[in-house]
Amino acid sequence: MAKETKGWNEFDAGAILFSFNKETTVSNLATTLPENRAYSQSNSYTASVADWRVEKPVFNRDFCIDCQFCWIYCPDMSIVSRNEKMVGVDYDHCKGCGICVDVCPTNPKSLLMFEEKKSENEALANWPKKESKKDKEAN
Amino acid sequence: MAEEKKIKNLKSFSTSADRFEGANLLCPGCAHSIIVREVLNATNDDLVISASTGCLEVCTAVYPYTSWDASWIHIGFENSATAVTGAEAMYKALKRKGRLFQPERTPKFVAFGGDGASYDIGFQWISGAFERGHDFMYVTLDNEVYANTGGQSSGSTPIGASTTTAPAGRVSYGEKRHKKDMMAIMAAHGAPYVAQVAPNKWKDMVKKIQTGFNTKGPVYINAMSACTTEWKFPASDTIAVSDIAVDSLVFPLYEIINGTELNITYRPKNIIPVRDYLGVQGRFKHLFQPENAHLIDAWQKRVDAHWAYLQKREEARV
């Protein structure tokens, strides 16, 4: 959207916003994945809330079992799943709430929260080892 | 009519393309959007949606952005039911006259409202829409407080909760009135389908919502929406808190068909004491002081009595 701010009197009394560009020719939206949609400038998909995060979830493919718990419980549509496989995290729309880490059932978890400034490779290198039953009981 | 979407398991469900977009301004960890996207993903049909004023409306339609990939309207605090039933009446009239632009498409009509808009401010409008018998679904996102305006008590706030209009302190233990039993009220309208859902039980929820879409006539869904800001728990615990709420039977999952047939759809294997539910939330912190101990016992007794009542009704089919 244009950066210059509007004055109060310049707003319309009732506003209509179009989610998609007018020339879009998608027959059924419910079966069209985001990459095939023609989002308009007024769709919040084109905006970002990345600066809300203090910590970010990092995804480790090695331990993932594609249970899709993170996908169903993500409040921000930020878990990208394609063809029944978990692909990664959409860092433009993730707010860093940590629900995906909380619901991840694997051992060790395949999603963990790391400091926002930490790089992905650094996070993957510091991934914890598998927790034995004894350690679990001790915790 | 488009074919009903088949959802066998979570893997096949995960191929859905979301029609509710990210970068909305709901709090991190808000259960509202978990519920909303599940409602929208439950069908492949077109959707006509209205929303009452509340967290959901305020955060998903911040000019110049919209988070909805569906026809969406907001008018006032009280009238999301009226707005969507008006659209439904127009659809029926155009269909009768043969003037629909795309007659092969069968849109679904959904109204979203918070608990303030459903239990208090918009109640007579919902009641009217159910009495007129429109073919639509009303979803209450029940977070038991006016969260959008800073946590005032609503008709849904349970006894003992500390809110900004009923703060707990030296002279008061917080909210003094019980929560309204909205499920019973809506079932008493003779609605064909009334159900209570929770976001942590996704399969139960999706099944109830699909049943609602396939039911002719008004459908009421009461969705528990754990509020990280006003219930005061960490943002990552939304699903964990919802689990405790369902397993302690504070939010039992059940449905009422035609106002009489009550089915309990989820029976917890291990019933958790209500004390645990109260303990994980900051709004009930003061109940654990010695002078308020009687309130926790009263909570447990009330929840047990309600569960016994539901089981009796399920058996009696009345």
Short description:
By secondary structure, chain A is an alpha+beta fold.
Note down, in words, how this protein is organized:
- The complex is a heterodimer of chains A (139) and B (318).
- By secondary structure, chain A is an alpha+beta fold.
- Chain A has 2 domains: 1-47, no CATH class; 48-127, Alpha-Beta Plaits (2-Layer Sandwich).
- Chain A is built from 4 helices and 4 strands; from the N terminus they run E-H-E-E-H-E-H-H.
- Chain A has a two-stranded antiparallel sheet. Chain A has a two-stranded antiparallel sheet with strand order 2-3.
- In chain A, strand 2 (79-82) and strand 3 form a beta hairpin.
- Chain A is elongated, with a radius of gyration of 20 Å.
- Chain B is an alpha/beta fold and 318 residues long.
- Chain B has an 8-stranded mixed sheet, sandwiched between helices.
- At the A-B interface, helix 1 and helix 2 of A face helix 1, helix 2 and helix 9 of B.
* Spatial extent as radius of gyration of chain B: 19 Å
- Report the uncertain regions of chain B: none
Overall pLDDT level of chain B: 94
The largest pleated sheet of chain B is described as: 8 strands, mixed
Largest interface summary:
A-B, 52 and 54 residues
Count up the domains of chain A.
Answer: 2
Order of helices and strands of chain B: HHEHEHEHHEHEHEHEEHH
Query: Main sheet of chain B: which strands, in order across?
Result: 2-1-3-4-6-5-7-8
Tally of helical runs of chain B: 11
Proportion in β-strands of chain A: 5-15%
Q: Count the strands of chain B?
A: 8
Can you identify the CATH class of the largest domain in chain A? Answer: Alpha Beta
Q: What's the rounded overall pLDDT mean of chain A?
A: 88
Helix content of chain B: 25-40%
Q: Provide a count of the helices of chain A.
A: 4
Q: Name the CATH architecture of the largest domain in chain A.
A: 2-Layer Sandwich
Under CATH, the topology of the largest domain in chain A can be stated as Alpha-Beta Plaits
CATH class of chain B: Alpha Beta
